[in-house]
Amino acid sequence: MRKTALITGPTSGIGRFTALELARRGYDLILVARNEAKARQLQLEIGDAVSTGFIQCDLSSIGSVKQAVEEITTNYHRIDLLVNNAGLIVQHRQTTADGIELTFATNHLGPFILTTGLVDLLKAAESARIVNLASAAHFFAFRYRTAKLANPQHYHDLLIYSRSKLANILFSNELSERLAPFGITSNAVHPGTVSSSFGGNGNGATSWFMKYFKPFFRTPEQAAADIIHVATAPELNAVTGRYFANSKPARSSAKAKNRALARELWAFSEVLAEAVLI
C-alpha cells in the first residue's frame, strides 16, 4: 500500500522539489496551496504514476484552513507524512481579516490549525511523520513574547519572521511530546539560505542581503533533499523532537528548547484558532 504525504506550499521553490521527489519515491500526494492553476500544473508535471489531490487553502485565514481540514478529513482516511513547508516574509506590516499579523498567521497559526485538525488521520497511519520547515533565523527572535505574536507593537520583517520560525520549532517540539504515545514523530528542519524569490521583497537591508548573496545560497533542490531525508530516512523512524540542518541533528536556541514556552504558545494558538468560526 502506497503512503500518502500532504505538503503545504508545493507549487514553487523547496516545496515543489519536495513534492516531485516524494512522487518519484511513490508517495500519493495531497497538495495544499492557494494557487489552483499552479497546483494543477504541478499535478500535470507529476503525471499519473501516483495520485495527486489538490486542496485550496490560504494558510493566513483561519476559516480557509478549517475548511481545508474538513475537506481533507472527508476525502482521506490516512496521512503518513505531513510536511509543513509553506511560509513567507513580508516587507511591511499586514493584518489578516482575522486581525492577526500576516507572517505569524501564515507561518505558525495556519500550520497549527491544519496539523492539529489532521491528527486523527496521522494516527491512522502505521508510523506517521511530521516535518516542520524552520530556520536558523530563530536564533534572532529577540524580545519574543507569546502574547504579542499576533499583534506586535513594532514591525521589522526579519525580526517578525525570526519569531515565527521560533514558533515553528516550539510547535514541532510540543507536537513530538503530545504525539509520541501514538508513534507519530515531529521534527523541524532548517533548509539553509535558499536561492529563490523568498525574502526578496523584504526591507532594504534584508532584500539587499538576499539579492547580493544569492549566488552563494543553496538551491531549492538541495534544501528539499534535507526535508526528504528527515521525512523518509529509515534510521529516523523513531527520532522525534529534533532540529535538523544539512540532514543532521543541529543545535537550536535555548528558547526553542523551552518547554514552558512551547506549552504557552500551544495554549495561545488554541485561543486564536477559536477566534473565527466557520
From TrEMBL:
<dbReference type="Pfam" id="PF00106">
    <property type="entry name" value="adh_short"/>
</dbReference>
<dbReference type="InterPro" id="IPR002347">
    <property type="entry name" value="SDR_fam"/>
</dbReference>
<comment type="similarity">
    <text>Belongs to the short-chain dehydrogenases/reductases (SDR) family.</text>
</comment>
<protein>
    <submittedName>
        <fullName>Short-chain dehydrogenase</fullName>
    </submittedName>
</protein>
<keyword id="KW-0560">Oxidoreductase</keyword>
<dbReference type="InterPro" id="IPR036291">
    <property type="entry name" value="NAD(P)-bd_dom_sf"/>
</dbReference>
